[in-house]
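hey can u run this one w/ glutathione bound, need the structure tokens asap thx
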Amino acid sequence: MSLKLHVFPLSPRAFKVMWCANHLGIPYEVAPVDFAKGTHRTQEFGMLNPNMRMPVLEEDGFVLWESNAIVQYLASKRPEAGLLPEDPKARAAIVKWQFWDSAHWDPACAIFAFENYVKALFGRGEPSPTEIARGNELMARNAPVLDGVLQKHRYVAGDKLTAADFSLGAMFWIAEQAKFPFEPYRGIQRWGADLQSLPSWQNTAAGIRQKVAA
Ligand SMILES: N[C@@H](CCC(=O)N[C@@H](CS)C(=O)NCC(=O)O)C(=O)O
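ok here u go:
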């Protein structure tokens, strides 16, 4: 198998790329990144990603980091699936949301992910009320934007599933543990439930849970 994903699968950014590859039927090998052992802080990993962060995709000497760039690359390998159309306007309407993810949505969600989930997972203490307050502020600014479009149509960029849904929706992988404050946002909740009912989501989740339990 020539495509390899370096991932810590409990992370939503890892889930994002594994889910997308599974959805598209792109076979891959998992190269586990062990945060507890610091395998991402080695010189060898730094050669792949100088940021010392996962996920990283490797394929026949081609190396790609940044989860949303990986989603775009995977989607481009299977144009027939329609996750990232060639038409410039249709494509830009999707890419816009992927940029929005990196700039606004991911940073807001990451606060809850770190404070409520990562700290508990690695025994790094209690959530910081100051950080949670900062997260609530960011969420109050950004969640209504996403909720607004999801009240109008089924998926982020319209009525079809696109690369934008993978970029933004992967956060639902840890929604329970991270305690994202999504209660007021009916559009986001309905969309999250829709994504989680997709066979590709179910298979990805089951595969990860099986590995973690083993
Ligand atoms: N913008 C990057 C973020 C990657 C990132 O921050 N990954 C985290 C885990 S979710 C990581 O590898 N952290 C390692 C560290 O902070 O030492 C992406 O979307 O790929």
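Strands lie at 3-7, 29-32, 56-59, 62-65. anyway lmk if its weird
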